[in-house]
């Protein structure tokens, strides 16, 4: 039969759009790229921080307001009064914590998605990527307040994005390479590995083909003599 054909492995993405599309695809091990996983982790962490930031003050304030407003109420015992105060605080913790949680999580998710998308598309990590992501996210969150709110959100986001991006870049540089440099290196190493495997399989296929051809050439004269 004909020897099997092995397709040459595809080279790493060369254009910005190719890199962006790869950002949301799983690899051979059904894993998402590290950048995508980091976006999800940051959003989850931001949600927890927002819940604590908004929930704890509301908890203590509601608990204190309950104690001050229930001086004339009768409770079965001291434990009953403490539990009632805690339940009032817990309700406020859940309500106001959730309000802050989803807002912070959404802000962090959008900011990281835009900044990561810019870094992947441009194939480099710069402060400008984070400043642009902060400006876009801030303006998006304040656009319902009109032009004044849009401008305020733009400025706030830019001011937030510059130090946040600088801190992230400094952390990555301490590790020896930025996340984008690491991603490019892993792409190149994976491509070289696949290319070497492909060339090895191709060499084996060519050897098998030559062996089969030589065998057929030897068998043809023998068949002619027998006839």
UniProtKB/TrEMBL annotation:
Main location: membrane
Transmembrane segments: 100-121, 150-175
A Pfam family of this chain: Tim17
Gene Ontology CC, one term: membrane
Compositionally biased region (Basic and acidic residues): 215-227
Subcellular location: Membrane
Top-rank taxon, per record: Eukaryota
Keywords: Membrane, Transmembrane, Transmembrane helix
GO biological process: mitochondrial respiratory chain complex I assembly
InterPro entries for this protein: TIMMDC1
Keyword Membrane: yes
Topology in the lipid bilayer: Multi-pass membrane protein
Renumbered residue ranges of the record's region Disordered: 207-227
Stated family: Belongs to the Tim17/Tim22/Tim23 family.
Task performed by this protein: Chaperone protein involved in the assembly of the mitochondrial NADH:ubiquinone oxidoreductase complex (complex I). Participates in constructing the membrane arm of complex I.
PANTHER family found in the cross-reference section: C3ORF1 PROTEIN-RELATED, COMPLEX I ASSEMBLY FACTOR TIMMDC1, MITOCHONDRIAL
Protein name: Complex I assembly factor TIMMDC1, mitochondrial
């Amino acid at each position: 039969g004909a020897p099997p054909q092995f397709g040459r492995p595809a080279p790493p993405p060369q254009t910005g759009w190719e890199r962006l599309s790869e950002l949301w695809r799983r690899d051979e091990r059904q894993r998402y790229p590290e950048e995508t996983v980091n976006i999800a982790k940051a959003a989850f962490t931001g949600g927890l921080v927002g819940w604590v930031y908004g929930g704890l003050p509301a908890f203590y304030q509601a608990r204190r307001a309950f104690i001050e407003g229930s001086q004339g109420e009768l409770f079965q015992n001291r434990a009953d009064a403490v539990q009632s105060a805690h339940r009032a605080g817990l309700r406020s913790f859940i309500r106001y914590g959730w309000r802050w949680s989803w807002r912070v999580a959404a802000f962090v998710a959008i900011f990281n998605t835009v900044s990561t998308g810019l870094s992947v598309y441009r194939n480099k990590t710069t402060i400008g990527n984070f400043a642009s992501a902060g400006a876009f996210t801030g303006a998006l969150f304040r656009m319902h307040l009109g032009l004044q709110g849009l401008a305020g959100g733009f400025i706030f986001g830019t001011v937030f994005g510059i130090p946040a991006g600088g801190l992230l870049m400094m952390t990555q540089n301490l590790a020896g390479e930025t996340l984008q440099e690491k991603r490019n290196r892993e792409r190149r190493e994976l491509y070289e590995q696949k290319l070497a495997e492909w060339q090895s399989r191709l060499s084996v296929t060519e050897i098998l083909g030559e062996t089969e051809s030589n065998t057929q050439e030897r068998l043809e004269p023998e068949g002619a003599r027998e006839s």
